Amino acid sequence: MDYRFSEKFIDLKPSAIREIFKSLGTPGSISFAAGNPSPESFPVSDMKRIADEIFENEPVTALQYGITEGYTPLRRLVSERLKRVYNIGTPDDDLIIVTGGQQGIELTCKVMCNEGDVVLCEDPSFIGALNAFRSLGAKLVGVPLEGDGIDVTALEEALKNNPRAKFLYTIPTFQNPAGITTSLEKRRAVLGLAKKYDILILEDNPYGDLRFTGEDVATYKSLDTEGRVLYCGSFSKVLSAGMRIGFLCANKALITKIVVAKQVEDVHTNVLFQMICAKYIEQCDLETHIAEIRKLYRHKAGLMLSALEKYMPPEVSFTRPEGGIFLWCSLPEGLSLGEFVKRAGEKNVFVVPGTAFSPDPEAPNRSFRLNYSMPSDGEIERGIKILADIAKDMLKR
Amino acid sequence: MDYRFSEKFIDLKPSAIREIFKSLGTPGSISFAAGNPSPESFPVSDMKRIADEIFENEPVTALQYGITEGYTPLRRLVSERLKRVYNIGTPDDDLIIVTGGQQGIELTCKVMCNEGDVVLCEDPSFIGALNAFRSLGAKLVGVPLEGDGIDVTALEEALKNNPRAKFLYTIPTFQNPAGITTSLEKRRAVLGLAKKYDILILEDNPYGDLRFTGEDVATYKSLDTEGRVLYCGSFSKVLSAGMRIGFLCANKALITKIVVAKQVEDVHTNVLFQMICAKYIEQCDLETHIAEIRKLYRHKAGLMLSALEKYMPPEVSFTRPEGGIFLWCSLPEGLSLGEFVKRAGEKNVFVVPGTAFSPDPEAPNRSFRLNYSMPSDGEIERGIKILADIAKDMLKR
């Protein structure tokens, strides 16, 4: 039979990245396409021991329905850590556990936006968020990303032109896909614009813990004095991605609505992993564990940057992330991104073309995203050489 | 600051049941309000052993990102069981793992309904589903539920009056809240109407495995030859509610869209529990485990029915479920449901008023839901006596 889908879903496509992810079975292939944390970052033996203890001592709590807001000890521990590490959280704030940061992003749009309302975002930005906004009928308006964060002048222009703007979605720290960190000056300017044009800011910070060089920059949430910022975080990049535990910290009035929205999506996040997270924080040393991951990614990012410097023709530019798991390469004018990505795939090297991250996938694009957390050291060296050879070959013509 | 929420969320309230659930701390209180499975139904030691094996042998699969469709071995095992037990599944069907049945319900509405489209539902029906539909801007049209299922004449009337009807949401087996099972004749008639008026049927069957008396009735999905039925199931009532594992089986074209919708909500369902489910089905005897739960609920339902017969004045009517975890009581005309529920609460006995389950919460209501899976044997006896005494006292006036 013919199905009459909702208008918002007729044209919505699955994430290009997750589709690539599915087809990565080829032996010998090198993937720079994933957004996955390194498996070395999973504290397997601690989790195993903690899961065992929970099944032994508190099985009913882990296996019975929980409350939508999340497992109370975890909410308290996450709030305490946010305060301690990021100076986030005021007496007017509350925190909800969500099924991965993705759900926090989607729920924020769901409770704030009517169909046709505008979400401002960096261009490029995280495809999962962009698709979530699209799936809810929001209109995406992209604002160019510069080396030190969003283009503030263009942002004000966009705010002037879009009176239905409800919030700015931003990944200010080790941005996905660009690896860029927004400067403190720009964060202050953006907050000023948010106030002037009365919009909210959804600050997505899944990589914030993964700084491996440079100095921390204050989060939007810690700079916010008005309840204008929703802060979305996640354990996906520091404990496990498969466990789907994220959190959203914002003004109580916002969290109250988000609880209702979450209740109708999945009732609550799976309890066992909330308990594992809480007990991991209580019993183990999360900060030392994170320091180990930073060390690992410092090494891998360093390898990738060295290989890019060594092999890549100077016409190809790339960002130098201070943390996180991605960097962003741009081909020079005249080279076709489509051809480059296709030829890389033929050599079994996978990257994600910039079009996937654009609020306007039809716009011209010459950039692609590279991930360094998943490939091995050898793969990084070999893969970048292959990409460089393709770029050189294309430049010859 | 003042927040401008989306129109759909301005008035949406949290589920009355989950709010009651949160306030159930009072020692000595008796709750017939929950929708929770009995903790005795959790196969704790098998799960503990299986989790341990997974952490030992396949930790990276469990802790890394998975694919949106779900853990492949679990999808296969669930499909096989659906075919074997319910004769569900055709070569045109596919199956997705969702974060509890709740997500399957919400995603179906999300991909099918534009704002203002109509969802038909039984009156009364599951509050979680009704709120999900409301949260997406769908219009609810309730159709009265009779002793043998939905009122077919009223359903046709509703279909005639609502050309924007997209699907019928139904819990045909051991309905929540009413405990009623729709007869085979009515299922055939409803399928005929669905065809005549070209709507889909979302068959929600979280309790179908829990028949403790009487004969199985064919599912809508197994009677469907056109791809008109989406079948939503769950492990919440047979393995664990806290693990949030459900599934949706439907025509491939529908599942393809639902995968996209799920991807933007939570990327995928937590992998460890998908693996635990799969290995439980492979290694243990799920059917014997379910037979034990049926025995337990047969006993508890029997106790509650006996207590109702023994204590309740004949003016109060109640349903006689053949499975599941709920029954439905109705006060006689003239008695106030609000007063009854309030007085019960004052005696520390909690029931959910029928208003919570109505597509129109403002409509007059004299019914309430009783759950027998959670209270102990003694609580069932004592609690029903307290409720009966209140009803008798109210009848005296």
Which short descriptors sum up this protein?
homodimer; 397 residues; alpha/beta; Aspartate Aminotransferase, domain 1; Aspartate Aminotransferase, domain 2; 2 domains; eight-stranded mixed sheet; four-stranded antiparallel sheet; 45% helix; 16% strand
Question: How does this model look, in words?
Answer:
2 copies of one chain form a homodimer. By secondary structure, chain A is α/β, with parallel strands linked by helices. Chain A folds into 2 domains: 12-43 and 288-396, Aspartate Aminotransferase, domain 1 (Alpha-Beta Complex); 44-283, Aspartate Aminotransferase, domain 2 (3-Layer(aba) Sandwich). Chain A has 15 helices and 14 strands. In chain A, the strands form 3 sheets. In chain A, strands 2-9-8-7-6-3-4-5 form an 8-stranded mixed beta sheet, with helices on both faces. Chain A has a 4-stranded antiparallel beta sheet with strand order 10-11-14-13. In chain A, strands 1-12 form a two-stranded parallel ribbon. The mean pLDDT of chain A is 95. The interface between A and B is large, with 84 and 84 residues.
